[in-house]
Write a structure and sequence with these properties.
The protein is mainly alpha-helical and 74 residues long. 81% of the residues lie in helices and 0% in strands.
Length: 74
């Protein structure tokens, strides 16, 4: 049950990212591709892929902090 809830939460958070950001995060952080491999799959330059991933991870961290603060106030 916990695993399913974690999967649902991951999908919800990825849905808040742009398609490119979510794609890079999925390829690198979930599927285990390198940034170079993910860039090739997404047909973008390596630097672009790295930038999309960095921005995505920043947004995900912010969402998690926001969510944590929201629950602490309950």
């Amino acid at each position: 049950m916990e695993r399913r809830q974690a999967e649902i939460e991951a999908v919800r958070l990825l849905g808040r990212l742009s398609h490119r950001q979510a794609g890079i995060v999925i390829l690198v952080d979930l599927d285990g591709y390198t940034i170079d491999q993910a860039a090739k799959i997404m047909k973008v330059h390596r630097g672009t892929a790295a930038r999309h991933r960095a921005r995505a991870l920043d947004r995900l961290r912010a969402y998690l902090v926001e969510s944590e603060h929201g629950q602490a106030g309950r």
